[in-house]
Amino acid sequence: MKTIITTPNAPAPIGPYNQAILTGNTLYTSGQIAINPETGELILDDIKTETTQVMNNLKAVLSAAGMTFENVIKSTIFISNMDDFSNINNVYGSYFNDATAPARETVQVAKLPKNVNVEISVIAVK
């Protein structure tokens, strides 16, 4: 059985998907981009600000499922320019404890939705 997770504190889906799906004790989030959920505007000022918005969106989805970043076991980061990796990694890393950080892959892609620079999804377990 699956439970649809939604929150107004993260951007509404822009297609035929949900913010997250909880099945058993496992949460699968959709990729988050830097959309401010209050205004619907993209936050693309700089890569650190953009990544912070992405992480805050993920935090809101995790919270809606009764979880935190401590529950995250796997993350996937898609970036449009590998030269941004260090700045993205610094912001991303500030949301995790190094000793218990999740498994992760970071992949450079040709293009992301709405021409953003970073998209991140996570898998978390209660």
UniProtKB/TrEMBL annotation:
Belongs to the RutC family. NCBIfam families: Rid family detoxifying hydrolase. InterPro entries: RidA, RutC-like_sf, YjgF/YER057c/UK114. It holds the Pfam family Ribonuc_L-PSP. This is RidA family protein.
